[in-house]
Amino acid sequence: MNSRAKIFLIASALSILSASGGLIFASVDDAQSFALEAAAPYVKEGFQVREDYWGGDLGSGEKKAVRQQLFKGNEYWFWMGTEVERAKISVHIYDSEGKLAEQPDGWEKGHFAAAHIIPKATGSYFIIVAVEESPEERTHWALVYGFR
Amino acid sequence: MRSFINFCRLGVCISVGLTTAARAAQAPARHVDERIDVKNLKLSTTVQDVVVPLPGEIFTALNKLGSVNWGEHVRTDKGGNFMERPRVALLLGTVIADGFIAVQAQNAPAVKDIGQRVLKLSQQIGVGNSITPHAKAIIEAADKARWENVRLELDRTQKSVQDAMNELHDEKLSQLVSLGGWLRGTEVLTAVVTKRFSPEGAELLHQPDLLVHFQTQLQQMPADKAEFKAPIIHEISEALGQVRPMIEVSGPAKITQESVKKINDITTRLDFGIVTRE
User: Fold this and answer.
1) Are B100 and B147 in contact (CB under 8 A)?
2) Is residue B259 over pLDDT 50?
3) Where are the domains of chain B?
4) Residue pairs spanning A and B at CB distance below 8 A
5) How many structural domains are present in chain A?
6) Could you report the per-residue pLDDT of B128-174, keeping only the tens digit for each?
7) Is residue A43 part of a domain?
8) Across the interface, do A114 and B203 touch by the CB < 8 Å criterion?
9) Hey, which bits of chain B come out as E strands?
10) Residue A96: inside a domain, yes or no?
11) CB atoms A71 and B36 under 8 Å
């Protein structure tokens, strides 16, 4: 079997398994895989996605803040993922004063959420991740980001 | 197993990633709060420590302010041979940052040299096994002038080094790797901005939370372990205290040309202390 066929088979198997509720793969690493999936199309647009990621688990309605140093002149996307199929997750970006600072083209869908910022100033920002709804008691999440 | 997982991730990215943008386009309008209460947020326990940017992230922003002669900042000196692991960790951080500089300069011999140096230093602190494939990939990509791949591998190298240190419960060493990289990145940033001053360039130094983050980590270094009593660690801690008021500007105040020069002097002195055996 050639390598393309192997990738296709493995990808299909993982997609089916994750669609079945994510019961088999339930870890922050899996959430990271989904965050990276969300990031994949943006790499073609020149975004460098960092290897590092941030993650954990949250109950429905819970939020977490990640403080991030951003640089004026760069453009950033933050991608959040979860392995829980029917969870609703969100990610938003606020400046150091607590004012919403993101571009309007962020999005949320299924396993994924994303937020986009072109910082008006260099400094600290708050990336707020949330599990809005979930059928699970705790929902794994992971956040990755890219810049260009 | 690790490579199998990465292989699977790649597969998933290929199969699903292409459809993600389409999904995003169909996503419904979302509710978002226009403001959050930062004061209460800071007081709560839900705030993750500040994320330390890669040197390449700062250099990308710097590049947009005008062309930079990265070649003059490339360094391939071997640096001192240290036995104390905290000193090796600091040096490793600066060498990885040197790798990002060499990528900016597209200097293949320097990148290859740095790749070997990173491997040697990683071996010295017992995490060489996880770095070998990255060092090999860095050298191969530099040979083919695939600079994006080199940049990616440097990022992976830093993460692998730090993950391996964390697995060995050497989190303090992992923090020193980040600090070493940040100091070297700041030294080069201030050198570039000093040479051609602009308020926009100086603004890239506005990183007060990062400074507090590093200061806190240095204060929490294990005082009972002799290797963490290296004078350079104390020197860095003191110097960060001097830098902080210069970059902690707010409102209409700007970081001045004089401050940029002073920070360059400080970080150059610290970098010399990191790479040189006193």
Assistant:
1) no
2) yes
3) 19-275
4) 174
5) 1
6) 998 999 999 999 999 999 999 999 999 999 999 999 998 988 999 99
7) yes
8) no
9) 47-51
10) yes
11) no
